[in-house]
Design goal:
about 180 residues, mainly beta, eight-stranded antiparallel barrel, single chain, about 55% strand, 11 strands, elongated
C-alpha cells in the first residue's frame, strides 16, 4: 500500500557550503522548504516519488548583505526563479547507505544529480507517529546551474568556489491514510 510522508521542518535542515577566497568555508541554509515522499510500502528502497522545493528568497548565510546578493540575478535570481526544486526518482540503499538520484533545478536549469544517503532508521514517536530519518550529502558545480558570478582579488584569488557541498538532515512523518467513505450498496 502506498504511503505518504512529509518533512518535519522543525527537525530537519537544508544546508550548503562553499569556499570563500579558497581559504574558508561559508555555510548557508534555507529557512523555508517542503518535502513530500510517496513510497510503495514501509520500504523507501527503489523508486519512491520524492518532491522537494526550497524557497530561494529564504536563503540565510548569517550575513544580510551576502544574502541579498545571493537572491539577486547574479546568483539565484529569486524574483524570477522563486524555488529550487529536486525531483527524486531512484533511491538505492544497502544496510542503510546508498544513493539518491534525481533532477535538480536551480535558476531554471535542470540537471541530473546523484547524492549520498544514509538512512538513520524508522521509529514510532511518543505520539504514535511513524518517522524516518535521513542524512543526504552531495556536491554540485554551481556553474552548471547558471550561477557563474565571480570575481578575482587583486592577489588573483577566486572569491567563490565553483563546488558547492549540499548537506541535509531530514526527518519524515508518515501521513494518515485517507479514510474511504462508506457508500451504501
Amino acid at each position: 500500500m502506498k504511503k505518504q510522508w512529509k518533512i518535519d521542518p522543525s527537525h530537519s535542515e537544508i544546508q550548503f557550503k562553499t569556499k570563500h577566497l579558497m581559504i574558508t568555508t561559508v555555510t548557508g541554509h534555507f529557512r523555508e522548504f517542503d518535502l513530500e515522499v510517496e513510497t510503495q510500502d514501509d520500504d523507501f528502497e527503489g523508486s519512491p516519488k520524492i518532491s522537494f522545493k526550497a524557497r530561494a528568497e529564504s536563503i540565510d548565510t548569517n550575513n544580510e548583505q551576502r544574502d541579498q546578493h545571493l537572491r539577486s540575478a547574479d546568483f539565484f535570481d529569486a524574483e524570477q526563479h522563486p524555488y529550487i526544486v529536486f525531483e527524486g526518482n531512484e533511491l538505492s540503499l544497502n544496510s542503510g547507505q546508498g544513493k539518491l538520484r534525481g533532477d535538480l533545478t536551480i535558476k531554471g536549469v535542470k540537471k541530473p544529480v546523484e547524492l549520498d544517503v544514509e538512512m538513520g532508521g524508522k521509529v514510532i514517536d511518543g505520539y504514535g507517529q511513524s518517522k524516518a530519518g535521513f542524512t543526504v550529502e552531495g556536491k554540485i558545480s554551481r556553474k552548471d546551474f547558471g550561477l557563474t558570478w565571480n570575481q578575482m582579488t587583486e592577489a588573483g584569488q577566486i572569491v567563490v568556489s565553483d563546488t558547492v557541498r549540499l548537506l541535509a538532515e531530514i526527518q519524515l512523518v508518515e501521513q494518515p491514510q485517507p479514510v474511504a467513505a462508506n457508500t451504501p450498496s
